[in-house]
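pasting for ref
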Amino acid sequence: MNTSTSSSSVTPAAQALPRIAVLATGGTIAGSAADVTSTSGYQAGVVGVERLLEAVPALSGVARIQPEQIASGDSKDMALALWTTLAQRVNTLLASDEIDGIVITHGTDTLEETAYLLHLTVKGTKPVVLTAAMRPASALSADGPLNLLNAVTVAASAAAHGQGVLVAFNNRIHCARDVVKTSTYAVDAFQSVEVGALGWVQDGRVEFQRKVVRPHTVDTEFVIGSQWPNVEIVTSYAGASRIGVDALVAAGVRGIVVAGTGNGSIHASLQQALADAVKQGVVVVRSSRVGSGHVMRNGAAPDDALGFITAGALNPYKARVLLMLALAAGGTGAVALQKIFDTY
């Protein structure tokens, strides 16, 4: 982990600017390809944080930057150990009087999961903003530099305080709980499909149109520890069998999130396997593979009778994050766990 300052001398005018820590973890925003027209054949995470910052000289008029290289990987390979490292580092920085906000550069593949994890475990009200890019740094019309500038602008804004963890992408500001990746290639790949963005950022102006309602950050019961309960995801589809569920139970998983069809409906064979898993002490959460909407309790499956939890508007990947944190916090029993999902 490398930490440095962006300049050796600071003018009085610059001294008045907020101090923003920029934590780099790799991803497409730090990717590079041999051909400037290539937006897919590149290596992620090879451009260091200092070079990312050099590509955005306008940052010097927005904030004093404290760069730090946390990791240099592809976010498809995000590991639980790195989540622990990142969350602990964020909390350490937020506790410092020298830091006014944090920006995290991240790969797009698992950004929504990391953002929601931090949204539930960050213990501070200072802004924490994730950003990324759909085009590598070497590409013609790379989107990373503007996304980075906008993310720092949001993190430096007083309006972002107390809003939980945010995602700044393509001029929009999203709540970590709501945002999802919706395209494999478009520069507006991140959307809050069900409820819309929180606001926007453009040309140095930040405007929030609504506030986050559900508890987050300092108002949650969750903390980052060294142990992560084993929670996996299965999917319901035509002809689904119970083979995967039975194998996961035999492997000792503590929880299973099912990406159901429609309103979290589950193929009969798969549902029976999941009901059997509950009887063996495994927590089962019904989510949906559909891109928007929410899963209603006792709608497509007899949740009370089978002991299932419903994920509400959380997609399967975010439901897994919440279930891991809930189990790590000692959550047990369908009633208590359902309350957690209804709350967060």
